[in-house]
Amino acid sequence: MNDFDRIKRLKKEKNAIILAHNYQRGDVQDVADFVGDSFGLSQKAVSSGADVIVFCGVDFMAESAAVLNPGKTVLMPELSAQCPMAGMITPGSLKLEKEKHPGAAVVCYVNTSAAVKAESDVCCTSANAIKVVNSMEEDEIIFVPDRNLALYVAANTEKKIIPWNGYCPTHHLILPGDILLEKEEHQDALVLVHPECRPEVVALADKVLSTSGMLKYAAQSSSKEFIIGTEIGLLHRLNRENPGKKFIPATRYAVCPNMKMNTLGGIIRALERGEHVIKVPEDIRKRAKLALDRMLEVGRGD
Ligand code: 13P
Ligand code: SF4
Q1: pTM of the predicted model, to two decimals?
Q2: What pLDDT is stored for residue 143 in this prediction?
Q3: Pair 85, 168: CB distance under 8 Å
Q4: Three-state SS across 128-178?
Q5: Nearest residue by C-alpha to atom 3 in ligand 2
Q6: H or E element in which residue 55 lies
Q7: Burial class of residue 80 in the structure, from the number of CB atoms within 10 Å of its CB (0-12 exposed, 13-18 middle, 19+ buried)
């Protein structure tokens, strides 16, 4: 029996669902029941009727699924698939920042630990960051941990944004020169970039979108060529879903090694052995859930 059939059989036996992020390896995306961006994955985790969720992404995504679904078993095939940006803020350092700005609300990017979410008023993803910030009553917003997303939001809102100094090492590898070089060769191509990119890269974009926002935009656009400024795993779906269109990665170096740790073998082991179970202490889970629920209520922005 091949890996795909084995996974299919195990999923049925365990009443399991596989959720995968748009940056996963192509074969992991192909075996998943749902592939999406962080916002779509959070929504799917809530609406699925499965007993077991195998999460193919990074730590904070599986943790969010566990926060939202206390009655379900959430499994991560590879525990070392951790987002470095999420590690750039701790609950303690956020508490200190809150003391400095007592009148400010805290909006945390979903790329954070459950403990940081528990210290925040609301979460957001790249698909709804501006919408979430604008939904807040407070005029001052502490925005953590991605400074690039914070700067992008600041340029598109009346609110005063207090950015944290975190960043995504993968999106930082996309440089303005990469976009300009590709633009010279593909003059009619539209430039789509993720808001985790440096501001100098965002300034060169025709559209700034989440990963699923890029998929939707590329499918609906009459343009035939696109330069893609995000992790290269997204090209798998872009190419598959748009056979007549051309997608050029801004740089082939934009690879997130953590996202690539999940494999078909890892999924089989996760389902067979029931590992690795993601659990969040109940006091943190309840407070983090408030921030995630609020984000889901605000809805998707792009
Ligand atoms: P989205 O798919 O939500 O745009 O997120 C990108 C990302 O880097 C997740 O870690
Ligand atoms: Fe974290 Fe960046 Fe990898 Fe997303 S692409 S998981 S933000 S390191």
Answers
A1: 0.97
A2: 98
A3: yes
A4: CHHHHHHCCCCCEEEEECEHHHHHHHHCCCCCEEEECCECCCCHHHCCHHH
A5: 256
A6: strand 52-56
A7: exposed
Report the separation in Å between the CA atom of 234 and the middle of ligand 2, taken as the mean of its atom positions: 13
Q: Which pLDDT band holds residue 55 (cuts at 50, 70, 90)?
A: very high
Looking at the predicted structure, is the pLDDT value of residue 302 above 80?
Answer: no
Please say if the pLDDT value at position 239 is more than 90.
yes
Select from 151, 256, 258 the least CA-distant residue to 195: 151
User: What is the rounded CA–CA span in Å between residue 260 and residue 56?
Assistant: 9
Mean predicted confidence (pLDDT) in 191-215: 97
22 CB under 6 A from ligand 1?
A: yes
154 lines ligand 2 (CB under 6 A): no
Query: What value does the mean pLDDT take over residues 152-181?
Result: 98
Ligand that comes closest to the CA of residue 167:
2
- Taking the CA of residue 196 as reference, the ligand 2 atom at the shortest distance is 7
At residue 19, the 3 state secondary structure works out as strand
